[in-house]
Amino acid sequence: MTHLRRCSRTELMLSWATEAAGLLIRMDDLTEPHFLRHQPGLTVGEIAALTGAELQDVTIHSQRMTNVAPIDLAEAGDLTFVDNAKFAKALTSTRAGAVLISEHFKCLVPSGLVVLLTPEPYKCFVLVARELYPCSLRPLSHCVECVGPSRRPPRKRCDG
């Protein structure tokens, strides 16, 4: 005869956690620390060609940007943008590698920051983000290599 004993909720959770611990993936087991895969980046010359922005210093056209980021969080290999006076003050302290900016804010850019002049910085920023992260766009049906042909989202039905 099997004897049943009453377990507290904490005991049950601890026993489950102990059993499940062997099934969980440890951080050491992960080979890639990033959730999104992206291309190796774009040079500022390629960004200028893609967006139609004017590269202010053509001697640095081969500098590579590998990510996009908001101006306050941008690092050395990141592209950022400013199209609003609210964020223009952040230009003085940004660590971004390059900035898409309109003529209006050009005078605020510190030396050493790669400048790409455009009348529509945000629109250009989105173009670059789409180029760097093509598999992150919605809907994913365009990106067979990311989701595979059998995992495409279902098409919307139109009733009417």
What does the model show?
The chain has helices spanning 9-21, 44-51, 85-88, 121-132, 144-147, and strands at residues 42-43, 54-55, 64-65, 67-68, 78-82, 98-101, 114-117. It contains 5 helices and 7 strands; from the N terminus they run αβαββββαββαα. The longest helix has 13 residues, at 9-21. It has a domain at 42-145: 3-Layer(aba) Sandwich (Udp-n-acetylmuramoylalanyl-d-glutamate--2,6- Diaminopimelate Ligase, Chain: A, domain 1). 20% of the residues are buried. By secondary structure, the protein is of the alpha/beta class.
**Number of E-state strands:** 7
In the predicted model, the low-confidence regions spanning at least 5 consecutive residues are 147-160
The arrangement of helices and strands along the chain is HEHEEEEHEEHH
In the CATH hierarchy, the architecture of the domain at 42-145 is 3-Layer(aba) Sandwich
- Which CATH class of the domain at 42-145 is shown? Alpha Beta
Could you tell me the radius of gyration in angstroms?
24 Å
Largest sheet: 5 strands, mixed
**Computed structural class:** alpha/beta
The backbone outline, from C-alpha atoms, is: globular
Features:
160 residues; alpha/beta; Udp-n-acetylmuramoylalanyl-d-glutamate--2,6- Diaminopimelate Ligase, Chain: A, domain 1; five-stranded mixed sheet; disordered C terminus; two-stranded antiparallel sheet
List the helices and strands and how they pair.
Elements: H1 9-21, E1 42-43, H2 44-51, E2 54-55, E3 64-65, E4 67-68, E5 78-82, H3 85-88, E6 98-101, E7 114-117, H4 121-132, H5 144-147
Parallel strand pairs: 4-5, 5-6, 6-7
Antiparallel strand pairs: 1-3, 2-7
